[in-house]
Write a structure and sequence with these properties.
The protein has helices at 28-41, 53-58, 95-109, 143-149, 173-177, 181-188, 206-209, 246-255, 318-329, 357-365, and strands at 15-23, 47-51, 72-74, 77-79, 86-92, 113-122, 162-171, 222-223, 226-230, 233-242, 270-272, 276-280, 283-284, 287-288, 304-305, 333-335, 339-341. By secondary structure, it is α+β, with helices and mostly antiparallel strands. It folds into 2 domains: 6-293, Alpha-Beta Plaits; 304-365, no CATH class. The model is unreliable at 300-355 (pLDDT under 50). Bound molecules: protoporphyrin IX containing FE (HEM).
């Protein structure tokens, strides 16, 4: 059965964090080991993962249709390209949790990857852009959302995957506030007060530039954007999922007026300051499916420690710890109470007392918080 990372089809969360990683090592073994550990950490819902084109290339594989974002420049507007090896979209309702998830990712990915840009984001009201306009109204829903966003019929390891564009847009809210309410509505093409689409909006109105059904073929994308703010700066982390990058590219070119010279009204108060393309692999057995990249392994060595290095928490029930000790004594390694490398045992024996990152996540997933 085809399974995508759930975050693609789910609504945007209360808080989000976009964590970008760059390659820190050109040794494919370091990179592969990091990805195998990432695979086990990723549930697709709390953590969504996208891989950049250069990373896939380094692994000696090819994902048909994956390529860098195309830089554009027209009428004084730049659409920059700022590639990254990995983009992890962390989602939840507690910023502290997302900070700890970030640290877990850093540990799991080192030494092959190093942390790059981090952008904290949040949901505004019912899902509005910071200008106050509802964002996502014309997103395809249900089967249409899956059809727009997910690769299908491409084979095992590819079906259920998605092509993601991430662009950080920075708003000039002073410029926006200086516009009359009518001009503001005309920039978007909808009335802010009731979200009604305006018949009399100019050709430059954003929803006219991006009317998905008006293209041939129709240019449907699934948008999951979130507002961001950092000090005095703010804007929108624009995120779009597609079964290819084609629809996004067509929309972006039309926003710039590359075909008819009409510039999107959005540029009157906002500009993209970063942008990159990623491939979001599907899920398999509750983990990220990296079979297309030839990565099937379990994270054997990451948490493996000799038993002498495994502290026995005072409050841990003896049977669990003894089980760990017995396996380790028999020549196995113990993984933070989570999984014994090379052995069939895959249950958690730490009873929630472990300080191991992997273990902590397992408890979160099972709804049993670590003590
Ligand atoms: C600062 C950045 C952006 C803001 C604030 C923004 C905001 C909005 C708003 C308020 C709407 C109307 C409600 C809705 O249907 O969601 C909308 C629609 C839309 N936007 Fe954006 N948007 C931004 C960037 C982009 C970009 C970069 C693209 C694609 C290249 C895009 C594609 C679309 C599409 C496809 C629609 C629906 C149009 C339709 O079919 O009616 N947007 N956007």
């Amino acid at each position: 059965m085809m399974t995508c990372q759930a975050a693609i089809l789910d609504d945007v969360p209360g808080v989000g964090r976009y964590v970008f990683f760059q390659l820190a090592s050109t040794r494919p073994d370091d990179v592969r080991a990091g990805l195998v550990r990432l695979k086990a950490l990723t549930d697709g819902a709390q953590i969504l993962v996208g891989l950049g084109p250069k990373l896939v290339q380094l692994l000696g594989t090819d994902v048909p249709g994956l390529h860098d974002l195309v830089a554009l420049n027209h009428a004084g507007v730049d659409v920059p390209v700022t590639p990254a090896a990995l983009c992890c979209w962390l989602r939840g309702d507690d910023r502290g949790e997302l900070l700890h998830l970030t640290r877990q990712l850093q540990q799991a990915l080192a030494p092959g990857f190093v942390l790059g840009q981090v952008v904290d984001a949040f949901r505004y009201g019912s899902g509005r852009d910071l200008t106050g306009y509802e964002d996502g109204t014309e997103n395809p829903a249900g089967d249409a959302a899956a059809a727009a966003a997910l690769l299908q019929g491409a084979g095992v390891g590819l079906d259920g995957s998605s092509f993601m564009v991430v662009q950080q847009w920075q708003h000039d809210l002073d410029a926006f506030d200086a516009m009359s309410p009518t001009r503001q509505d005309h920039s978007i093409g909808r009335r802010r007060s009731d979200n009604e689409e305006l018949d009399g909006a100019p050709a430059s109105a954003h929803v006219k530039r991006t009317a998905q059904e008006s293209f041939e073929p129709a240019a449907f994308i699934l948008r999951r954007s979130m507002p961001w703010t950092l000090g005095p700066q703010s804007g929108l982390m624009f995120v779009a999922f597609g079964c290819s990058f084609d629809a996004f590219q067509v929309l972006m070119r039309h926003m710039l007026g590359l075909d008819d010279g009409v510039l999107d009204g959005l540029f009157g108060f906002s500009r993209p300051i970063t942008g990159a393309n990623f491939w979001c692999p599907p899920m398999h057995d509750g983990q990220l499916d990296l079979r297309h990249l030839g990565l099937r392994g379990r994270p054997r060595d990451f948490f493996a420690k000799p038993i002498s290095a495994v502290p026995r928490p005072d409050s841990l029930e003896p049977p669990g710890w003894l089980a760990a000790a017995a396996v380790a004594d028999a020549g196995g390694a113990v993984g933070g109470g989570w999984r014994f490398s090379g052995l069939a045992f895959a249950g958690c024996v730490c009873a929630g007392h472990c300080f191991d990152a992997q273990c902590r996540l397992l408890h979160q997933r099972r709804g049993r918080p670590r003590v």
